[in-house]
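Q: Structure for this?
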Amino acid sequence: MQGTATNPGDEALVRQTLAGDHDAFGRLVAGHARTVRALCLARLGFHQDLDDLVQETFVHAYQGLDRLREPGRFAAYLARIAQNLCVDRLRRAGRAGQTLDVVEFDPPAPHDPGPDPDRLALLRRHIGRLPEALREAVLLFYFEQRSYAEIAGGLGITEAAVNQRLHRAKAALREALGEVEP
Amino acid sequence: MTLDDRIREALAPLRGDPERDAARVLAAIRNLPAPHAAPPPVRTRWWPVLVAAAAGLLAGWLLHRPEPAPPAPGPEEGPRLLACTGPIEAFSAARKGGDTLLPGAGFRIGDTVFAQERAQGELELGQGRLLRLDSASEVTTAPEAIEFVRGRAIALASAVPLRVRTGGVEATVLRGAAAFTRAGEATRVLVLRGQLRLRGADGRELELDEHQGIEVTAGAFDRPYTQALPEMSVAWQAELLAVAGREKELAVLLERLYLAALLPPVDGKALHALRQLGSGAMPRLAALLRTMHKNPLDPQRVAIAGVIADHCDLRALDALFALLPDPSPKVRLLVYRALVRLTGDDGGIEERDVETMDEERLRKVAAAWAESVR
């Protein structure tokens, strides 16, 4: 979630990191790792190398920290880096190693869930295939455990819109799982 | 267990451990050069310098006064995204990263435009020129030509030609439309309609007419490529055409593929193309099945009904209800199963009765079933 507000705690930790305190950066990582993880999940679906992507985001953030003009806006800075890395992954992942005939006539079928006996893994896969706006709402609410107000504030939408996105996401998941709404 | 609980449980393994993340990151940055806080700005008396510079600039301007510049093009005149079925990204060094484009949003010449998985986009490049980009496909824009990087794209030109560079060659769509497919270093170019001129890295030129194609690698013309029904190569654009409101083009695409699916020997390939149309095209395909060539014994009709049943979503409900009283018992069965899957209801009839029930009675069942789910 792209935060817009400044955070005095982050500001102090950024300044300590710039003064050479590695542990301060460790505290920044611990404080923001879950958000970065949720952001990457929302952007990429469920990716095999999520841990690596989270690590890469923070390493990039560290390397460019001296160019961060407003240290209190570390969260927004981090979200931008994560977003760019996700786009880069998406670009590199597309159609690698395929032949012309495969690309022309047999594109990947992302809607096919494939056999999976594990109901939770199947549910996870369906969450990964939700439209991005719905997936983002699901991850922020269930994964990051944010309130409606926090999600609404972060995404710049109303709480009613958050409620609607979650409702639509659950309806889509029920349909994908072949369940009827109770 | 409620769906909320199951979602939480399903996502729990992905939450990770922030402390472990911190340890991994600290280990990774241990040997990197440490960033340093920027030194405080040096206070300089700038005003004498600024005054002198301004005086110099004013004198220079008076001596070499330029002609008034033409007005800058408005956003509606530059390249922009016309329609999309999912996230389309534009990024460049100038943007300092990527932006997700919404329909109507402009982008800069020089930007790389990328369609994510399950997303397709139609780009307007000015002077009636369009570019359709399939999912996981990418182009880089430039003042003179588009650089087609990967995936599948369709370039369209009318009055002004559109130049596309790919695989070391330059393809100029003189008029009409051409499909581009790229895998690794190889690119396939196929003229859908109109005419295209191709220039290789060695300066050799080639003109291609409708339905003619070629494969190129590293700037050289490899081998000719022909496609009896070019629509099979571009079936993927159906969802995008539906979203963009290009009804006429979509109708022609569907009708040609539908008719090809009924006619051997290309029926297998055409059926394969029908499967790529996407859910958004299924209502229209069901309408074609209902109104054209209603031979109940035709196995190809059953095969097409199978495609519709497998790929339809809730948008196809009305078309499926209309198709349920089909003369073919096998088509009815497929449609019935799709309706059960989509509505979670059986309409008050059992599967074994669907094949034998007379058409009039089935029509009444369909009407009542449709009413019950509205």
